[in-house]
Amino acid sequence: MQPLTSIILFDILDLIEFLEKRNVSTWVMVLIGIIVAVLKFGDFSEALQRSGRAYKNFVGKIKNFVGEKAESSETPAAASEDRTEKLFTLPVIFGLDEEAAEISREIQKSRMVLITGPGGIGKSTLSVFYAVNHREMYPGGAVFIELAPVKEGDRVAQVTAEILRIPDDGTKSVTNQIITFLKAKKFLLIFDNCEHLIAEVKQLIVEIKTNCPHVHVICTSRDYFEVKGLPDGHRLELRSMETGSWNMPTEELRQFNGVKLFEHHARHVNSRFKLSPGTLPSVSKICSWFDGLPLAIILAASRTDILTVEEISEQLDRFLPQLESSSANILTVRHRSMRNAIEWSYELLESLEGNTMMNLSAFADDFSVSAIKKVCFEDSVRVETRESIISKLQRASLLKPSSPKGGTKRFFLLETIRQYSKEKLIARGDAEVIHKRFCEYYLAFVAEHGAHLLGDRQMEKLEILEEQIANIRMAFVYMDRYNWTDMMTRCGAGLWRYWEIRSQLNEGRERLEHIANNSYEPNRDLQEVLNGLGTILYRQADYDQAFAYYQKKLTLDDLLGDVNQKASTYSDLGNVQGKKGKHREAIEYFRKALLITDAGEKSRVNAVIFNNLARESLLIGEVGKARQYYEKSREYFMHLQNKWESGFPLHGLGMAALYEKNYEVARGYFEEALKYREEAKDQRNVAQCLLGLAYVGISLSEMDEARRFLKKSLDINWGSQEEMGLHDTFAVGVVYMVKAGDCPTAIQISAYLQRESRRKANTKLFHVFSENLISECHDEFADNYEQWEQLGQSMSKNRAYNLLNKKLEVGA
């Protein structure tokens, strides 16, 4: 990804203030080194590593400071920010001060600014410049949402939610989850490169502006668009940079921003480059040829490592008039100028280098050197040749370095260049061949990393897949376009656990349903797709559909003669029946599963079955049996080094300890489970562990601690709109309010829960605890009990949330 994509903008000036208050001169000196390094390298983590002898000590201080900021926040955004890599990238900018000031004025009036102009004119740079320099206006945060890699319109809201780190459990539309998350925040959203997704972006902006009164929006687009019902949106059309005229006095030419930009980037590739009275006219002429478009000027300046400015000017004198006549049908002069600059850069490339650029257009996001070599080159191309081409394209500013991830060098194409390269690839006539190579590379990528999502390398592999999810989505687009059903099935089979663990359930369901309904080859990949689809439907509480797909999988298990998978499917069918309140039937399914497998084998299948059997046993009051089953499940998961799933029996053991009122024991189990959940960034189950800790706090009269855990769980579940999690939170909220002496609130929320549980047939352990306690309120407040109960039964979910949230914020 590009350095600012999916990054909550982090301002180093806050650090300066923090350090100066402590009067530590060494820190300030190190900080100066960091600022210089940031401006040079554009990457905060790289800058830290290059900032002197005090690096290790300083990093520790930075981490402590960042942690202090995250802990002091009261919103889910803070948890989100705490999980987000913090980079500081201040763009180099010349001559856009007036435009930045205009954004500042107009965004206060209309809350939305649309920046338009051709590719390469600086729209993205200006939006980031504004965000960095107005950080104090947005205490909730600011995010840069790069839409160029998004090729499917219905992904706009989903990509926005991912960048905001809002887990999607599929129980509510993604747009509504975004609204809930942003509603009370002072926040800035930057939607970059909207031109190919205008309808979908407009729809999301309307919802945000209508429901989130403190959110500001900046959009960048090559094309102008109006947002229906929002006539107050302000449009800012960027002007080209001033370049002067080659026959002006040379000292005057130095003052023009186009010339300054050329000099800046020329010195980046050629440290000996200097403006002089002899070179200034040629530089001005080059900038004028490209009508002052920043990206075009940068492309030209990048060639000063191999050409003098006089040679560049002479080439353009010969080359551009021919291009002007061949591109006359392109709409505007500035569009032609940008296209001409890219075409000229292409003309300077050798044949293999130009073909490599065309092949790179297959990527939707950033890519590693190994990806370039696999997708863009024939096997016959020598390794030294490949590396030489990559280096040359980078020097020409056609290939841009991205933030290194895990020590791996990565690159990306600017969208303007990518679109031009895509046109050239299509015209060449073999796009399908390159797209197939691309899909084969990412299919192998998913198979390699997806295979470890349940092992000890789970966290590492989740991060690797997340970094490349835009390219993986692009692979799905190609596979669907060319009807490569077998490849799509294999990719879905390898990726579904990523969707489950990362709570991207809507996307997972949509893709897996498409595969399941279009795959006809009965094989193990389809078997895994049906398994994943059933699991995601179960997570979405769509139990009837989950049961139907698990039954389809059971038929396929028999057809393939796969005993272990058949046992696993019986276990999954038992889970569904348990959620529908049919606990005895659920237990029978689990026993069927254990009859098929060797129950003593420490396999994942048996670990899951024992965990499920324990849960249902606990729900019918067989606590001793439940504890034994949970212990066996935990033993098997730990044997397999599966930390994420070992959180399930650990949480279950905590619940069993609550039943037996062993509160300190329960606390230990919940804390251990919470550690694994947080490592996996599994917010849904983090919230469940927090509820367990809240209940322990209530039981031990540690009410402040209980309130803190309960509030965190409520924030997570409300942000994701996860229905079952919300109901559990409300149930523990009832217990808290009873113990805190606020029976009116407890009675109302309890009545709301009783109505909802009847409608959804959802029985939970925490609900049993709350129902047992609510009778205390009935005895004490008999005169008003019926009135409060009626209020609760007519209460909406929003009102129930607001009531509980307000009480937890101020203390009952």
Give an account of the 3D structure.
A hairpin with an 8-residue loop joins strand 7 (400-401) and strand 8. By secondary structure, the protein is mostly helical. It is 67% helix and 4% strand. The model is unreliable at 1-90, 323-334 and 759-763 (pLDDT under 50). The longest helix has 20 residues, at 431-450. The chain starts with 11 loop residues before the first helix and ends with a helix. It has a five-stranded parallel β-sheet, sandwiched between helices. It has a three-stranded antiparallel β-sheet with strand order 6-8-7.
The main sheet orders its strands as 2-3-4-1-5
SS-derived structural category = mainly alpha
Helix content: 55-70%
Mean pLDDT: 79
Number of strands: 8
By DSSP (H or I, 4+ residues per run), the number of helices equals 40
Q: How big a fraction of the residues is strand?
A: under 5%
- Biggest beta-sheet profile: 5 strands, parallel
| Shape assignment | globular
Query: How large, in whole angstroms, is the Cα Rg?
Result: 30 Å
* pLDDT < 50 stretches: 1-90, 323-334, 759-763
- Distance between the ends: 45 Å
Task: Supply database-style keywords.
812 residues; mainly alpha; 5-stranded parallel beta sheet; 40 helices; 67% helix; disordered N terminus
Please give a quick description of this structure.
The chain is mainly alpha-helical and 812 residues long.
Topology:
Elements: H1 12-20, H2 25-41, H3 44-49, H4 55-72, H5 76-82, H6 97-110, E1 112-116, H7 123-133, E2 141-146, H8 156-163, H9 174-182, E3 187-192, H10 198-211, E4 215-221, E5 234-237, H11 250-253, H12 257-269, H13 280-289, H14 294-301, H15 309-326, H16 333-347, H17 351-360, E6 367-368, H18 369-376, H19 383-395, E7 400-401, E8 410-412, H20 415-428, H21 431-450, H22 458-467, H23 469-481, H24 485-501, H25 505-516, H26 524-539, H27 543-560, H28 563-579, H29 583-596, H30 604-619, H31 623-639, H32 643-659, H33 663-679, H34 683-699, H35 703-720, H36 723-739, H37 743-760, H38 765-780, H39 782-793, H40 797-810
Parallel strand pairs: 1-4, 1-5, 2-3, 3-4
Antiparallel strand pairs: 6-8, 7-8
Helix pairs in contact: 1-2, 4-5, 6-7, 8-9, 9-10, 12-14, 13-15, 14-16, 15-16, 17-19, 17-20, 18-21, 21-22, 21-23, 21-24, 24-25, 24-26, 25-26, 26-27, 26-28, 27-28, 28-29, 28-30, 29-30, 30-31, 30-32, 31-32, 32-33, 32-34, 33-34, 34-35, 34-36, 35-36, 35-40, 36-37, 36-38, 37-38, 37-39, 37-40
